[in-house]
Amino acid sequence: MKKVLKSILGLFLIALSVSIFTGCTKEETVEVGICLPSGEQNRWLQDKAQFEEMLDGVGFSSEVLFSQASSITEKENVKKLVDKGIKVLIICPEDSEAAADSIQYAKDNGVKVITYDRLITDSDGVDYFVTFNSTEVGALQAQYLIDNKPEGKGIPLYLYTGLPADNNAGIFFRGSWEVLQPYLADGTFVLANCPEAQNNIYNKELSQEVVDKIVMQEATDWSYEVANNRAKAEFANATKDQKGDILILAANDDTARGIADVVLQDPDVTSYKITGQDAGLASVVYIVNGKQGMSVFKNTNTLAKNACKVAMSILNGEEVETNAESNNGKLYVPTLETPVECITIDNYVEKLIDSGYYTLAQINQYK
């Protein structure tokens, strides 16, 4: 009897071991790997939730890892995901150029790479790009300033860009420049900062080298603190004729709030109009309170859905839908662009609250 019990127990332990081993193997197999910049910013946490809900909801396993502002961590994360057997990598690069090295391991292992929101440059390892219409973002910002400019000529215009390592920063600026340049050339606007841009006011078409120099000269790194400090220095040194009724091209919402908080304290600024991007809650409140003129609404829910749509088409062996191409320096990457919209005091309720993107309670919480 004891021998029989021992045999049964032995078989049970073997079966249990096989079950545990098989279960672990299954758990560690991931079909879609996702690398995002930061787990400490609401934007990327929101994207993470969207990816997990959408992919898991249709039966595809996924895992999200954060690069935490480090290209080295990003490269390590890509390797971890590839080693788990992913078929598709969705990656928003920390540094558009450095990420070419990060995705090489994925390419070498036959993984399809979707660069997300920011284009990975100088790499032939990119298969698809899912993004917003970045040129249109800049154009909407510039057009808002034109539509809301004071009367007359010689209106001071301040330019503030984004993060030099982010390929989008230059695209946003180029989109703005094409709209603003005629108003600079005819003297309607006069640049109050950015000497590199001043040197090119008669050039509607800018070389990439010039765009890079302008982005570097007025970089804010998408940061409230960096923008705030830069604005403090520039407005402290600005002359009275560079103040009065002014216009400010600010690259994103954090940048806009950082600059607005400086301008609001300057007694020589009579009025100002300032742009933004992302339609973040804090900046929507600034718009409601008259501290920020506009923001470009980039519906991140739609962007994440489009990335998942591309990933699912790849996994299902279906044709991938794209509507544009993007030159990353090595190849023209098939691109799926997501539309953007201008948000102002006049339409924020319709676009952001009535649509369900935010609730009125969320906005009131920030007031």
Quickly give the structural class.
alpha/beta
Q: Overall mean pLDDT score? A: 91
Rg result: 24 Å
Task: Kindly report the oligomeric state of this protein.
Answer: single chain
Number of helices: 15
User: Percent range for helical residues?
Assistant: 40-55%
* Overall body shape: globular
Order the strands across the largest sheet as they lie in space.
2-1-3-4-5-12-11
Distance between the termini: 76 Å
| N-to-C series of helices and strands | HEHEHEHHEEHEHEHHHEHEHEHEEEHH
Q: In what range is the share of β-strand residues?
A: 15-25%
Low-confidence stretches: 1-26
What's the β-strand tally? 13
The major pleated sheet works out as: 7 strands, mixed
Fold blueprint:
Elements: H1 2-28, E1 32-36, H2 42-57, E2 62-66, H3 71-83, E3 88-91, H4 99-102, H5 104-108, E4 112-116, E5 128-132, H6 134-147, E6 155-159, H7 167-185, E7 189-191, H8 195-198, H9 208-217, H10 224-237, E8 244-249, H11 253-263, E9 269-274, H12 281-288, E10 295-297, H13 300-315, E11 324-327, E12 332-338, E13 341-343, H14 348-353, H15 360-366
Quick overview:
Helices cover 47% and strands 17% of the residues. It has 15 helices and 13 strands. The strands form three sheets. Strands 2-1-3-4-5-12-11 form a seven-stranded mixed sheet, with helices on both faces.
Structural account:
This protein is of the alpha/beta class. 47% of the residues lie in helices and 17% in strands. The chain contains 15 helices and 13 strands. It has helices at residues 2-28, 42-57, 71-83, 99-102, 104-108, 134-147, 167-185, 195-198, 208-217, 224-237, 253-263, 281-288, 300-315, 348-353, 360-366; strands at 32-36, 62-66, 88-91, 112-116, 128-132, 155-159, 189-191, 244-249, 269-274, 295-297, 324-327, 332-338, 341-343. The strands form 3 sheets. Strands 2-1-3-4-5-12-11 form a 7-stranded mixed beta sheet, sandwiched between helices. A 4-stranded parallel beta sheet has the order 7-6-8-9, sandwiched between helices. The radius of gyration is 24 Å and the shape is globular. Mean pLDDT is 91; it is low at 1-26.
